[in-house]
Model the fold of this input.
Amino acid sequence: MKTRPMSAALVSDPRVQPELRRLWLEAAGREGIEVTEVPGHRLSLSVDENRCEVLFDGRTMSPDVVVLRTAGVFMPLLTLADKVWQERGIATINSTKSVNIARDKLASSLVFYKSKIPFVPTSGFYRGGGVEEISSATIVKPAVGSQGNGVMLYNDSVSAMESLGDTVKAREEGHLVAQPFLGPHGHDLRCFVVDGECVAMMRRHALAGGFINNTNKGGRVESLYLREAADLAVKATESLGLFYAGVDIVESNPMRVLEVNSLPSFVKLKEATDVNPADYIWRGIKRRTGRV
Done:
């Protein structure tokens, strides 16, 4: 008897990079997985006295697995939908619970603290709020943010954080985080972890005179593999309950986790290392669900 191909709903954002979309879909094809792309704005949740259904364009969704490629403004509805999928035995990769923790740099720091994982010290506060005095170079950024947006570096000693909170562009309702600037200036490591294994790694270099290493800001990348960083990245990913993640690590002594991206892009990683993490993700999902 022929086995039915595995079906997956790939929840996306209409603005996703075309190259990233291609990498996801080509990898799924190699694994024989039937993928339905589900733009987040076309999802809905319908509840009445007799039923509770997650709908895509008005039709009930019943894939074997849901894979989150984006969250953003869709996260509140996705979090509720995930509860319904779990009740129906539909796995979500990554789960919204883990994504919600990982995308908040302060919340994930609490997890690292409890798990005894080396990480960059992090202080959280609101605009106009204050934390303890910081007397070294300090990075301030939105607690929930990505791609280096809203990140600012303060080189001078500051006695209160009010001025920082007032000058950082962030959502009014969002809190900010402050972190000391550790490690070599202008570069860090991006490690990509899938199902307990670091499958690829690159070092990111900021533009000359800059400090933001994100590749979308023009940073240069190089392929490498450091066992210490790989092991640390795996521990950080597992502590957050993530199936896959892009883990940023600073090369301080010891190495420390800077942050974990639970919905990472990997276009530049593929260019630098010739590894497509989506191959490992789809293959790992098949193992997890017994579809190998």
Notes: The CA atoms of residues 12 and 39 lie 5 Å apart. The longest helix spans residues 18-30.
